[in-house]
Every structure is written in C-alpha cells, then in structure tokens.
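hiii so um. not sure if this is the right channel but i have a protein structure encoded as tokens and i wanna go backwards to a sequence. like what aa goes where. can anyone help
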C-alpha cells in the first residue's frame, strides 16, 4: 500500500508551484473575435474530438487510483487502530495520512478534468455568435488546462516531492528499528509513485500543440495504438 500513497500527495503539494502564472487559452477571446463562423465550428470540432479521445484513459486512471487510495486510507487506518505493536502504528499512521491526502487531491484539490472529455463543452449554449465564441474560448481553456496537467509529469519538483514523501514514510519505519522494512517501504513507495505519475494521460499535451498548428492550417494528425480483435492497430485522428 505504500506504493500508492505518496504519489498523489506529491501532486497535491506541487500543483500550484510548477505551472506558469497565466493560461494563454483563457485570454484568447480577442484573438478569436475575428474568426468566421465556419472557423469557429472547425476549431470546436477539433477540440471536442481530442478531448473525447483522452476521456477513457483519464477516467480509468482517475477511478483506479481513487479506489486504491480510498482502500489504502481505510485499510491502514484500521490496521493502525487494531495494532498491538506501537512500532506498527508508527508505520501505519503516516501512510494512512498520505493516502487520505491522495484522496483529497483527486476529489477536491486537483481532480482530473480530462476524464469528462468534451462533455463540459457540449453543455454550453451555442446559439448566437457571441455564445459560440464563448464556447470556443472555454474549449480552448479546457484543452490547455488538460495539457498543463499532462505536462506536469515532467516537473522535477513533482518527482522530488515523490522522493521526499516516500523518504519520510521510510524514516518513520526506520525509527522503529526495522531497517529492512524501511528500505522496502521507501523503494516500493518511490517506484509506485513514479508509475502513478507517468501513467497519467499524456496525450493532452500533444493535443494542445497540434491545435496550435491546426489553427494556422497545418497538419494535426494524431496516431494512437489501439487493441483490435487480438492484435494491435493504428488509429489516425484529425
């Protein structure tokens, strides 16, 4: 269970520190004001396709780790409560706290918006031109926000925090005199944290780059690998 605890805690602690102060998509209104109605629809169609393309991966990732961290929080809390050995409690308590922080991160602090696909955009009104422009601005902002989240996997501070949190959990075990358990706690926790970080959907970062080329008439094809009747197939999206 140590494997899954520190990873999301790291995300929560780093979320506001690595990102740039402004999101270009949130200030794209004036730039979009002169585009034609046909271009608005063209861009919206592109964005919605890309948002939906990442939806399944994002939802699977989100709910898998939510289940793991909820289970870890409950399991470690119960283990701490019923443990007769004070050293065991000293190991379980910090792990349970990190698991609870992981749940809070996924549920409240920084939920993964990519799991909703294009649904938040489709629900917006698109009658008069002003509404369609607003819808496009919101779509761009969502695509950019998802991209920033995907890019966060490369943040050195995120990985350093993962290291520090697992080192702290290992130190709590080491303080009880269980040196081998402390090493296992740190190594498995850090490795699991890295798996957590890198398994998060990365496609949204590429989607934002593709969209920049798409707006100026460049090619924005996206090739992905998908399972198909017992074999692997390539899927080409525009």
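sure thing!! here u go:
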């Amino acid at each position: 269970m140590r494997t899954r605890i520190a990873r999301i805690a790291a995300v929560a602690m780093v979320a506001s520190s690595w990102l740039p102060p402004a999101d270009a998509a949130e200030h794209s209104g004036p730039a979009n004001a002169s585009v034609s109605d046909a271009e608005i629809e063209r861009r919206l169609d592109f964005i919605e396709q890309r948002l939906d393309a990442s939806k399944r991966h994002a939802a699977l990732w989100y709910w898998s780790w939510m289940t793991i961290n909820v289970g870890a929080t409950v399991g470690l809390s119960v283990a701490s409560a019923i443990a007769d050995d004070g050293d065991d409690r000293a190991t379980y308590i910090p792990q349970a706290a990190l698991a609870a922080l992981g749940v809070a991160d996924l549920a409240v602090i920084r939920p993964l918006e990519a799991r909703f696909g294009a649904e938040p955009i489709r629900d917006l009104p698109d009658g008069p031109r002003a509404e369609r422009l607003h819808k496009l601005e919101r779509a761009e902002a969502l695509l950019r926000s998802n991209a920033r989240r995907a890019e966060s996997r490369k943040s050195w501070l995120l990985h350093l925090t993962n290291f520090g949190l697992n080192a702290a959990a290992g130190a709590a075990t080491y303080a009880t005199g269980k040196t081998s358990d402390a090493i296992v706690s740190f190594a498995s926790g850090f490795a699991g944290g890295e798996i957590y970080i890198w398994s998060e959907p990365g496609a949204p970062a590429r989607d934002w780059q593709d969209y920049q080329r798409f707006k100026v008439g460049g090619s924005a094809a996206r090739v992905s690998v998908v399972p198909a009747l017992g074999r692997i197939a390539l899927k080409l999206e525009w």
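oh and Residues 2-202 form one domain.
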